[in-house]
Hints:
Blueprint: H1 2-5, H2 11-61, H3 65-72, H4 84-109
Amino acid sequence: MVAQVLPAVPGEAWTILSQAITDGRDGAKFMIRCGLDTTDSLGRLVASAVALRRYAWLRTSGFSGDVQQSLMDMPFDGTRLFGDKADLALKHFKDSRATARFLGQRLLLDPSSLPFAPFVATEGAPNRVLSPRPSTPTCCTAPV
Length: 144
């Protein structure tokens, strides 16, 4: 459409119109570049925020430095602080540590609070050694 109008425009007006079209094209390119730069900056901001949240969470977790570093390097899936696999591994690791800590505290503080009686060897009791079971039952073997 513009190509049909340009030949009908007189000399000096044609150069002004041509310059306006060029300026408009340059402005559109600039706006596209601004949008791309803004998107890039926002992506970096989100990545920095996730890294900061991971660091803050891991710092208070009590995990060893190696575990913390490997978790910091895991990819971000967009829905959770760590991915699904990391969440399962962390839950298992944290549960096992909590269980060990709980049992260790109970054993160290008061062994009588356990739901079972701990084994205590008594003096004078015969020392029994259990022999392994025979591999074949004696009732089913033929006499030799």
